[in-house]
């Protein structure tokens, strides 16, 4: 006789059978049957977060490193709303995620109870796929569809909404995951057009994103550049990059508009390998939105959802570049910084301190902008960035990455303003004993916004305006905040202490926090 199970258990079994075996949760009443099902189903690791933005950000970090989706478990519309900022970031990063949101029972929604809201409408701008299960018999099938949808290239947020009665009523048993299509390969026309642009004799750039930024893709780009004389770069922000010894040195398009325009000056051709046309992060008075020259011709080698690495292999073969000699990075870290803590001294220390096979999560914002060049010759590592621009991703992203890769050290480079958005992630790191070393760059202000005041041409700025960008009165104490959530740490005021503290954090199991005071 087949054992009966409710909708929640059928969903959990479907997720586990489909390879989704980690769930970052902040559940409520409507999700209790899902929670109860965890004790009846082997194979699902459920991790509690104290804020939904930590759950969604951690699911993002997990998927970037595990290369498969995790799930979230959120409570009704307000719980989803709390997690939307990092769902936005995940969507921009094309992260595969199964985002499960509980709702009132179907028959209760008509009564407009306090937590009633239009969850589908709220979820749609931040998801690539949204569905509400109508009854318990459909839950497993809808869950299987969500798992498949999340992994549709290049990856997307799949939001499944579960009314309470679909969880507690009798379900159908687990469902099989639909076949996930393989990435499409580019056309011969795209390859030949790209080859023509790169061999035109005019200044050309091969602009990379996505899988092109792993070691093999970077090597192919370097061979193509060496053969044709073109330049190759990465877009400004990237979900994941292979860096350090054994990889290929690559620059990114700078964030500041003026620097970006200067970098791309004179280009006649830009070939897009998974990347988008380069545009400014914001609009500024009397500055262009498009960062390249107006007469630049764009050629698409591959869209992000296509097989970018195969496209680069085909392009290299078309150009006769498959054996063109290139030089990979050698391990040659800079000498650690000394003296006063600042961007110029922090950059070489980070390069010297990154351990082998590390995962670096970069939300250093203004302080961390110059770290990239000084870390290129460090130990081999992976670099994760904020793709959507909504701050507060760093700590959750590091949390999820550490869950995905428990044997790899995670170094989270974090601005103090950004840290306060999702600092609850420290509690989850402590509870799960995750190997995350968090460095807070404490300049006690939203430093990047001070620069933006000038960039947007804001005039006659006085005390009231400056107070909106200031994080003092009272001063934050991140060491005390971390200790209150079970994470040990220390405050440092010079580079010698900084170097020792980071080395200690990276070599000690479990989470650790360093608050680096910047004048």
From TrEMBL:
Organism of this sequence: Variibacter gotjawalensis
UniProt-listed SUPFAM superfamilies: Thiamin diphosphate-binding fold (THDP-binding)
Gene (UniProt): ilvX
Enzyme class: transferase
Family that this chain belongs to: Belongs to the TPP enzyme family.
Stored InterPro entries: THDP-binding, Thiamin_PyroP_enz_TPP-bd_dom, TPP_enz, TPP_enzyme_TPP-bd
UniProtKB keywords: Thiamine pyrophosphate, Transferase
Protein name: Putative acetolactate synthase large subunit IlvX
NCBIfam families listed in its UniProt record: PRK07586.1
Residue span(s) of domain Thiamine pyrophosphate enzyme TPP-binding: 379-515
């Amino acid at each position: 006789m087949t054992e009966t199970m409710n909708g929640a258990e059928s969903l959990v079994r479907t997720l586990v059978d489909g390879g989704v075996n980690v769930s970052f949760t902040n559940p409520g009443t409507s999700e209790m049957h899902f929670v109860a099902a965890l004790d009846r189903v082997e194979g699902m690791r459920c991790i509690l977060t104290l804020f939904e933005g930590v759950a969604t950000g951690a699911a993002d970090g997990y998927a970037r490193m595990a290369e498969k989706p995790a799930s979230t478990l959120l409570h009704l519309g307000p719980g989803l709303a709390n997690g939307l900022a990092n769902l936005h970031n995940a969507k921009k990063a094309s992260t595969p995620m199964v985002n499960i949101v509980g709702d009132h029972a179907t028959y209760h929604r008509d009564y407009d109870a306090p937590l009633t809201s239009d969850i589908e409408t709220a979820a749609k701008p931040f998801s690539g796929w949204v569905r509400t299960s109508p009854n318990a018999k459909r839950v497993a099938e809808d869950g299987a569809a969500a798992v498949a949808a999340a992994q549709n290239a290049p990856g997307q947020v799949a939001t499944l909404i579960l009314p309470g009665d679909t969880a507690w009523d009798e379900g159908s048993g687990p469902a099989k995951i639909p076949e996930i299509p393989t990435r499409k390969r580019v056309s011969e026309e795209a390859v030949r057009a790209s080859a023509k642009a790169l061999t035109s004799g005019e200044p050309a750039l091969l602009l990379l994103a996505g899988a092109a930024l792993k070691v093999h893709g970077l090597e192919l780009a370097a061979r193509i550049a060496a053969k044709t004389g073109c330049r190759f770069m990465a877009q400004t922000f990237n979900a994941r990059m292979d860096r350090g010894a054994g990889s290929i040195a690559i620059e990114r398009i700078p964030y500041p508009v003026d620097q970006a325009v200067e970098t791309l000056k004179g280009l006649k051709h830009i070939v897009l390998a998974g990347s988008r046309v380069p545009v400014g992060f914001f609009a500024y008075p009397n500055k262009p939105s498009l960062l390249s020259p107006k007469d630049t011709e764009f050629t698409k080698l591959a869209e992000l959802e296509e097989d970018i690495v195969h496209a680069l292999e085909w392009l290299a073969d078309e150009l006769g570049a498959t054996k063109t000699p290139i030089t990979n990075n050698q391990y040659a870290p800079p000498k650690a910084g000394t003296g006063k803590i600042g961007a110029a001294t922090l950059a070489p220390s980070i390069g010297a301190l990154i351990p082998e096979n590390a995962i670096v999560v970069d939300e250093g914002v203004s302080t961390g902008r110059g770290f990239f060049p000084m870390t290129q010759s460090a130990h081999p590592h992976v670099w994760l960035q904020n793709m959507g621009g909504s701050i507060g991703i760093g700590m959750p992203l590091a949390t999820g990455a550490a869950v995905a890769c428990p044997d790899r050290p995670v170094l989270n480079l974090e601005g103090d303003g950004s840290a306060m958005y999702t600092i609850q992630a420290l509690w989850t790191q402590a509870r799960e004993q995750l190997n995350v070393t968090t460095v807070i760059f404490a300049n006690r202000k939203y430093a990047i916004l001070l620069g933006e005041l000038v960039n947007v041409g804001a005039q006659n700025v006085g005390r009231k305006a400056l107070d909106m960008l200031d994080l003092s009165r009272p001063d934050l104490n991140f060491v005390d905040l971390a200790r209150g959530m079970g994470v040990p740490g220390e405050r440092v005021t010079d580079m010698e202490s900084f170097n020792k503290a980071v080395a200690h954090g990276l070599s000690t199991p479990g989470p650790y926090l360093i608050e680096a005071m910047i004048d």
